[in-house]
């Protein structure tokens, strides 16, 4: 029997899908990327070819997967989805590649987690549409080259610097998705609220937007929690008070910081006198994976000016002391 928790998770996933834009017009923000992409796709369509391979990078929840869906739709193509960690053996990728049909779009999420052997299969497939298979074993083994139909690879990653440079060089265009502006996040929340049939006051909407880490997925997640809170309290409208109480319950503060973010700042302040501290030392002190610290916590803390990376390590800024209400022993200067 499903537990309440898995029920909630499944419901969240269903809602996630329902909120995912299926038209370019509903894909808010990232204007330059949309324009550039449209040019690439229009040109490919005009020539009757498939688009170049594309690399999308940026933090989780910024809309990379959604873009892949929109690109496939624009090209009237089938979208096949996999991810770096799902491709363990060379045969896993070979099976996917050999099943591709003309014009298909293959989306590989978390591409920085592709292992070296898989990359070796991918290179000739991207370069000249060849799939090299090894048939037989030992001395009798030989390589068979299979022709692949024209297809487009869209790879997504949160960490472009971890992709090997030979792989990176095989993409015709690379797009970096940035954090969204607050008005764009407000538009996304407004659209989601409409789809969820939720009446929300502008001030509550603004409060959720500000706590969303400038990230659409977080904005939608907070909106769902606010909706739960309103439902449980029989509220017909999401007011400022409801949004405030929900955020308090989730321990999300007015900058969108969660307990783990505050813990990271506090640890640097209390254990390392505000820094600098190296990532491995910090990871050990927090008992958290250094990749998660680098991928999830740090980019946002840096974007709101509470943390800096220096050659000597991570340092909190005077703003971090202010935000946490802690006296800065160094005054307001960084050094
Ligand atoms: P990523 O692949 O970068 O982790 P997703 O594409 O899965 O992010 O986006 C997460 C959710 O955020 C989507 O389901 C969608 O509802 C919403 N979203 C992302 N980008 C946008 C956007 N530009 N406009 C509207 N909603 C968006």
Which keywords apply here?
single chain; alpha/beta; Rossmann fold; Helicase, Ruva Protein, domain 3; two-stranded antiparallel ribbon; 14 helices; 9 strands; globular; binds adenosine-5'-diphosphate
Describe the protein's architecture and organization.
The chain is built from 14 helices and 9 strands. It folds into 3 domains: 30-176, P-loop containing nucleotide triphosphate hydrolases (Rossmann fold), CATH 3.40.50.300; 182-250, Helicase, Ruva Protein, domain 3, CATH 1.10.8; 259-324, Arc Repressor Mutant, subunit A (Orthogonal Bundle), CATH 1.10.10.10. The chain starts with a helix and ends in an 11-residue tail after the last helix. The strands form 3 sheets. A 5-stranded parallel beta sheet has the order 2-3-6-1-7, with helices on one face. The protein has a two-stranded antiparallel sheet with strand order 4-5. It has 335 residues and is an alpha/beta fold. Helix 4 links the parallel strand 2 (79-83) and strand 3. Bound molecules: adenosine-5'-diphosphate. The site of adenosine-5'-diphosphate (ADP) has 20 residues, from helix 1, helix 3 and helix 9.
